[in-house]
Amino acid sequence: MAKRVAVIGAGVSGLSSIKCCLDEDLEPTCFERSDNFGGLWKFSEEPKDGMTRVYKSLVSNVSKEMSCYSDFPFREDYPNFMSHGKFWNYLQEFAEHFGLLKYIQFKTTVCSVTKCPDFSETGQWNVVTETEGKRASAVFDAVMICTGHFLSPHLPLESFPGPS
């Protein structure tokens, strides 16, 4: 029986984590609190749930050769430095090519991750989630936290005098 892995977040790291799990014959379940994958790369006019997003005119400052997945290069016709829309399209192509979307539970918030009572013997984790007001609990052999470091913006406004 394949080991079960909880992947928290379906952005750039979450998508690659799902694929790596599949490559290693593990059974991933990805929990994504929004209604789509791509994390901060999915542009939205109105940011939701306090999530940081790209801005409308963003163009990546990292070349496509340095920002692609090692086993899935950008198409030749993509520009070297691309808009957020092109980058999100690339993520969509990656997810569809490797069949990753079926492993993602959208609109699902992870409420807690705790060691199971028998953790010292099993190494298992209890993951509590909430989807549309309904809570669920599941046991996993491993947990990958792929929420990124831009999840909660920190604005140290008290350190900068002037209008805010």
Automatic annotation (TrEMBL):
SUPFAM superfamilies per UniProt: FAD/NAD(P)-binding domain
Superkingdom per UniProt: Eukaryota
Keyword annotations: Endoplasmic reticulum, FAD, Flavoprotein, Membrane, Microsome, Monooxygenase, NADP, Oxidoreductase, Transmembrane, Transmembrane helix
Enzyme class: oxidoreductase
Cellular component GO terms, alphabetical: endoplasmic reticulum membrane
EC number: 1.-.-.-
Localization (cell): Endoplasmic reticulum membrane; Microsome membrane
Cofactor: FAD
MF (Gene Ontology): flavin adenine dinucleotide binding; N,N-dimethylaniline monooxygenase activity; NADP binding
Predominant place of localization: endoplasmic reticulum
Family of the protein in this entry: Belongs to the FMO family.
Name of the protein described by the UniProt record: Flavin-containing monooxygenase
Taxonomic classification: Eukaryota, Metazoa, Chordata, Craniata, Vertebrata
Name of the gene this protein is made from: LOC111811990
